Automatic annotation (TrEMBL):
Residues 15-27 have a biased composition (Basic residues). PROSITE patterns: FBOX. Residues 1-27 are annotated as: Disordered. PANTHER family: F-BOX DOMAIN CONTAINING PROTEIN, EXPRESSED, F-BOX DOMAIN-CONTAINING PROTEIN. This is Putative F-box/LRR-repeat protein 23. Residues 1-12 have a biased composition (Pro residues). InterPro entries: F-box-like_dom_sf, F-box_dom. It comes from Triticum urartu (Red wild einkorn).
């Protein structure tokens, strides 16, 4: 049985700080370059409040644009938010912002205490 040739010697990695920076840079990913469908898949894992007030919209312009995609806002659930945000944010304003993001594609809306006739009319006016 013939012997296989030995493997080639490992290439020496650049030494020093510049070499380390190059290695780190080559491992970085450009999250802004992700396709829109991949970004939307990731963003669907978050709830409405995380989308509005979390960090995704602040990552970069492409992630901000993805957060504003109406597909993410087809189901809006504002139940149970009154205890968390009553002091700092108007739930009515949050609901209106969510409805505005949906661009007429909202199919389900769930709310509790802060839902009034004005908000329901706002929802109806924005629905296609």
């Amino acid at each position: 049985m013939p012997l296989l040739p030995p493997p080639p010697p490992p290439t020496a990695a650049p030494r020093g700080r510049r070499g380390a920076r190059r290695r780190r840079r080559s491992k970085r990913r450009n999250w802004a370059a992700l396709p829109l469908d991949v970004m939307l898949y990731v963003l669907h894992k978050l709830d409405d409040v995380e989308l509005m007030f979390g960090g995704p919209a602040r990552v970069c312009r492409s992630w901000h644009d993805a957060v504003c995609e109406p597909e993410l806002w087809r189901r809006i659930d504002m139940r149970g938010r009154s205890l968390c945000f009553r002091e700092t944010v108007s739930l009515k304003n949050m609901a209106q912002l969510s409805i505005w993001f949906s661009a007429g594609q909202c199919r389900e809306f769930f709310g509790q205490h802060d839902v009034d006739n004005e908000l329901l009319l706002f929802l109806a006016d924005r629905h296609n």
